[in-house]
Design a protein that fits this description.
Length: 364
């Protein structure tokens, strides 16, 4: 939960660059197999999982595709964090997938998440750390080969989302520490972008099958605002009405956007932005803070919220607006869903009574 709270704080103040220059290590690969589990059941069930060789300091699933393959990051170490990117196949096989020569890797660095760093074919994108602890982008093909990349002028690259065609969006930092959004086309060419009113930086967060990108930009007060970049390059800025800051999380094929926003009291709430630009705000019952992760093609949404005792819970919001909450792993002390796939399968992180982090899958 400590990492979850930190991510939420970072998003609200926009101070991201200093955090990315962490010390990361570890390049081992390994697999662990479990029994195959069908994706659909008459009643929701939970499956929990851990990395090869034991538990993690933090377990951060950040993407799940239609096949049920999960990607994300797990963190080990009692002092300086050690980062490992991973893939978990539908049959339970768990594989560490740090690029060769890296000192660590992260998939879904700023995900609440929802940007889907894995596509339908199983390609994943993320950040790897070099020996100087600077981050570079990578994409791993479904059959295993890695391609390393950076936009021109980048000192730290953070890919966030990859679509079915292999187009990638994210952000990078220049030599002045200012972030910019980028689009990496399937042929490897780059287009960079910034919102017209950006002062503190811009970023791509999610990309759909049409090539439409949702992201954010930061103003002079380090408050975030939403942006949509269409496939032709036109950018539309947006904010939830009466908000002081808007943080988009994801976009689906229809162009529906979800995320969370801060009201005048700096309390967070969930939102949905329809393709026509209209907004719907929402909160699970009992929420004091709502954070939204992913949206699937039908418009189902998942995320997390805190109750009055500052306990984290998950929620599921159906396309018609009905909210199921709490969505908690049995016997957990806190549950934080990240993303949802087309079948409604949710993945994320939970903490047990000892404060240990684990991954989970919720199958509808």
């Amino acid at each position: 939960m400590r990492t979850k709270i930190l991510r939420n704080t970072l998003l609200s103040i926009g101070v991201l660059f200093a955090v990315t220059r962490v010390v990361a290590a570890g390049t081992s690969d390994g697999t662990l197999s479990f029994s195959d589990t069908p994706l659909c059941h008459s009643h929701p069930i939970f499956i929990t999982f851990d990395p090869l060789g034991g538990t993690a300091r933090d377990m951060l699933p950040s993407g799940i595709n239609a096949a049920g393959t999960i990607t994300g990051t797990y963190i080990t170490g009692t002092g300086r964090p050690v980062f490992y990117a991973f893939l978990r196949a539908r049959n339970g096989t768990f594989t560490t997938v740090n690029p060769p020569g890296s000192t660590g890797a992260y998939v879904g660095f700023f995900q609440e998440t929802g940007g889907q760093p894995i596509n339908v074919a199983g390609a994943i994108t993320g950040t790897y750390f070099d020996t100087g602890h600077f981050g570079h982008g990578f994409v791993r093909a479904p059959d295993g080969p890695f391609t390393i990349f950076d936009p021109l002028g980048s000192t730290f690259t953070v890919p966030q989302s990859i679509n079915a065609a292999g187009a990638i969006t994210g952000l990078y930092y220049d030599a002045s520490g200012v972030s910019h959004g980028f689009l990496r086309a399937p042929d490897g060419s780059f287009t960079t972008f910034d919102a017209p009113d950006a002062v503190g930086g811009s970023a791509g967060q999610g990309i759909n099958s049409a090539g439409t990108i949702v992201g954010w930009y930061s103003d002079a007060n380090f408050l975030l605002h939403g942006l949509v970049r269409d496939s032709g390059g036109s950018i539309t800025e947006f904010d939830v009405p009466d908000s002081i800051s808007t943080s988009p999380s994801a976009i689906n094929a229809a162009g529906t956007i979800t995320g969370f926003y801060y009201d005048a009291n700096f309390v967070t709430h969930g939102f949905v932005r329809a393709p026509d630009g209209t907004f719907t705000a929402f909160d699970p019952q009992g929420s004091t803070e709502t954070f939204v992760g992913g949206i699937n093609p039908s418009g189902a949404i998942t995320g997390s919220y805190y109750d009055a005792n500052f306990v984290g819970h998950g929620f599921f919001r159906s396309p018609n607006g009905t909210i199921v909450a709490p969505v908690d792993v049995p016997n957990s002390t806190s549950t934080f869903p990240s993303v949802i796939n087309p079948a409604g399968v949710i993945t994320g992180e939970y903490f047990d009574t000892t404060g240990t982090a684990h991954g989970f899958i919720r199958i509808p």
